Amino acid sequence: MAVTLKDVAERAGVSRSAVSRTFTEGASVSDKxxxxxxxxxxxxxxxxxxxxxxxTTGRTKLIGLVSNNFHNPxxxxxxxxxxxxxxxxxxxxxxxxxxxxxxxxxxxxxLRQYSVDGVIVASSTLPPSFAKAFRDAGVPVVxxxxxxxxxxxxxxxxxxxxxxGRMAAQTLIDRxxxxxxxxxxxxxxxxxxxxxxxxxxxxxxxxxxxxSHSFASEYSFDAGRAEMIRLLTSDPAEAYFCxxxxxxxxxxxxxxxxxxxxxxxxxxxxxxDMEMAGWENINLTTIRQPIGEIINSSIELVVATVDKPDRTxxxxxxxxxxxxxxxxxxxxxxxxx
Amino acid sequence: MAVTLKDVAERAGVSRSAVSRTFTEGASVSDKxxxxxxxxxxxxxxxxxxxxxxxTTGRTKLIGLVSNNFHNPxxxxxxxxxxxxxxxxxxxxxxxxxxxxxxxxxxxxxLRQYSVDGVIVASSTLPPSFAKAFRDAGVPVVxxxxxxxxxxxxxxxxxxxxxxGRMAAQTLIDRxxxxxxxxxxxxxxxxxxxxxxxxxxxxxxxxxxxxSHSFASEYSFDAGRAEMIRLLTSDPAEAYFCxxxxxxxxxxxxxxxxxxxxxxxxxxxxxxDMEMAGWENINLTTIRQPIGEIINSSIELVVATVDKPDRTxxxxxxxxxxxxxxxxxxxxxxxxx
DNA sequence: CCCGTTTTTGCAACCGGTTGCAAAGTGGCG
DNA sequence: CGCCACTTTGCAACCGGTTGCAAAAACGGG
Lengths: 337, 337
Prior knowledge:
2 copies of one chain form a homodimer. By secondary structure, the first copy, chain A, is α/β, with parallel strands linked by helices. Chain A contains 12 helices and 12 strands.
């Protein structure tokens, strides 16, 4: 059925090694044989079996892409960028959908069976120990959107979530809000924990503020909406920092359904700046997370780690910035730059 | 580095075949050796190399998942269902992002290099010839969300887009609209072409109607919005059948920004019933495409085709139905059921 | 034209598994 | 206990490639 090295070798009248060499970078073949081989290969429609060659070279060019969030539209953007970025470098994404699984054992075993060259864990909710399980199994791994650490145990690429919390807090203060709240994602998500820490950090330094917080059950529209509906039943805050754009959009929907106006009655600031945040019927003020840079950097780092597995784990953090749109009232008074 | 069959065999004091057999379904091994082997494997942390075994068995359990739409949120749902469905059957999705590529040659070559057992092309825009290229290369293929055909050249699973067009048309007529329009996706997308055909089909049978149509440049929010902004500049229709929910949502945003009300001034009906269509701030009346059933059926069909490559190509079509929400005015008069 | 150097080539072993086949082992039954 | 049928086991070849090594070929200089 499939045409192999041997078929090409016979047709070209050379040895199998000669054929193999014409298809491997930097191997020693004369122009004459190369032409003969290429001709034969063309005629037979031959292309080398990547899996067979991986046996001896030890490289499959497969990269495991592990994620657990298929309900947040930002992940479509994430998958788009990851798959394109990997393809551009000749790598192939092998997708793993964790759903609600939190034990890494299965994914580790599965990805080892397929001899992936490396793994990218794309999740802002999984703990560092998840990615660590790959490292312990000898699989190069990068945790994208993971928790920062000064001495990380695995490579992490993402943002400083505490800093984002502080940034959101300071923004709300600058806008003159005094009764504020953090509407986070699931309490177990590391990103939510860190954003809360940063938010509270700043708030506690400002005595005049009334501060509260609560958690949505997951990073999704429905969860954000449900939580905001609950909050609106009893003395809501003036402004909310939602732990994610998709929560913000859910919250927005609840606020508007309650007949309240944004930002007139209630202010909302999100985090991510996903595509939808810019849609004119949403127009969400948010903190932009530079996912393109995070993803490119993650790919670059995993590739580097494949070449040099003992690289000491590093944390690459990218700065975030406020994207001003229409869900927060303008500054009450001039703010120092 | 990695622990192999041989290591396990030595430690267990048996032959390599014995080890191989304990790990292959239905092979003949005594309980005694099986236990010895399992113990040794456990101690060494062995798990068989799926790629090496694929060399002899001819099965990799890899399924190529090819798509070209990473801007329509429905595809996040699609990826979620595909990856989970494949995983549940012990298969692994190898993702291919076509971006704007329309030539199948690259994907075919790449997926053959990785010896995928089968391929699922998930796209409502690519022509049947795209999937056909895989079949011609001897790779089992199913086209999900593809174009229906009475004698298809490859397996197709999806909906009858012409029928959906008719359904939308009839619905608008039943609601008493007389000036209507089809706002499609890209003109080259087969789904758009077919929906338009069905829509016109019914309209032409109703002399009282004023009908027009136009195309958005792609299936995305921005394209839908841009097209609707253009339409609003000159004598818009009373109601639009948008070729996709994400177009509808873009269109909705444009309509509302123009200070018009929905469904008061303009009615909109979409197609897909993606998660967001049900969000309370969108609340889109739409035609539900049963993507869960389509995806399960696609997986089942590709698996069956792997076992029996010469199966004659079939088209599996699933019925759609109207999901009534808030963007179309209620029936003007009683409608026969 | 000869000889030393460099390039190209094929052989054969190997990567990590599977599998047909024949030999060895096991069990049942008369 | 002996015979037969059935199960289990190991050997060796194979899957589709790669690669170290030594032989062969090509090249360059005198």
